[in-house]
Design goal:
seven-stranded mixed beta sheet
Length: 291
């Protein structure tokens, strides 16, 4: 039986001016996103997804800020009879997600451009709502969480969130160039309206969105880039950004010079080629059970 939509919640149909993605959608900006899968980036959700799929094979999952769709598509193996919807602010990146789903043979995934602040779905439409590395870029993450909760079903519905704490980057070798870049990327994030410490504040943000503490299950997860292939993905992304117009323009507004940025880019190139180089970062994770 379909639930009735609260008229007050129809604010999502009003015109708005969505906040642009901090780092943009160029190939160099999202190339490391294609490395991400459910297994290496959303493992905290998989047991809950399997349990939900076993009890309701036709469940619906919404992935907000899905980017090129590699995580979204990899959910399919855990809910083969379910329905997956991917959304992102950019129609261009949704085209990439559709192409990825097709190439991966995923038949139960659809893609739709949409703002996380104004999701074009009725109340209680989805059994599971997922977002990853999205809130960290937003000026108003609490509003986004409320919107995800709105479209999640009551009494058993789950909102799953995973966000980085960018202060908790660990890299070896710890060179001056990489340390300088770490400071730069946090400053760029803050100047664009995001919050580098979003991951550690997830519980607080969800509570601010109106969810009681006992309905929130918190954990921490990691990424590790160590193999030659992983180093090429992670380091290569930052080399491209540092030599791209968007990052340079933002950095120069913060007082950085061309030589500073080129030094950081060369630092990442050296890191990529260093056999014993390693990088790790920490992410906050929450499973929210909607009342």
């Amino acid at each position: 039986m379909a639930s009735k939509t609260n008229p007050a919640s129809l604010e999502h149909s009003k015109p708005s001016h969505p906040q642009p993605y901090t780092i943009g959608y160029k190939k160099s900006h999202i190339q490391n996103h294609t490395w991400r899968t459910a297994e290496n980036s959303s493992a905290f959700l998989i047991p809950h997804l399997l349990a939900a799929s076993n009890s309701n094979p036709t469940l619906k999952l919404l992935d907000c800020g899905a980017g090129p769709g590699t995580i979204t598509a990899s959910f399919s193996k855990y809910m083969p009879s379910g329905q997956i919807t991917a959304t992102d602010l950019s129609e261009e990146v949704m085209t990439q997600a559709r192409a990825h789903a097709e190439s991966a043979g995923v038949k139960n995934m659809t893609c739709q451009a949409a703002s996380i602040y104004e999701l074009p779905f009725p109340d209680e439409e989805f059994d599971i709502v997922h977002a990853q590395q999205v809130l960290v870029h937003l000026e108003n993450p609490v509003k986004a969480i409320r919107e995800m909760v709105r479209v999640c079903k009551s009494e058993g519905g789950i909102v799953a969130l995973r966000e980085s704490d960018m202060r908790m980057w660990s890299f070896y070798p710890e060179t001056q160039e990489l340390s300088a870049f770490h400071r730069l990327i946090r400053r760029v994030m803050e100047s664009s309206g995001g919050a580098p410490d979003t991951g550690v504040r997830l519980v607080s943000l969800v509570m601010q969105a109106g969810i009681e503490r006992e309905r929130i299950e918190a954990s921490m997860g990691t990424w590790c880039y160590s193999t030659p292939e992983e180093r090429a993905v992670w380091g290569g992304t930052f080399v491209s950004r540092l030599r791209g117009e968007d990052m340079r323009a933002k950095a120069q507004k913060l007082g950085y010079e061309e030589r500073d940025l080129e030094s950081m880019a060369k630092g990442w190139e050296e890191w990529i080629e260093t056999e014993d180089a390693n990088f790790g970062c920490l992410h906050g994770e929450v499973i929210v059970r909607k009342p």
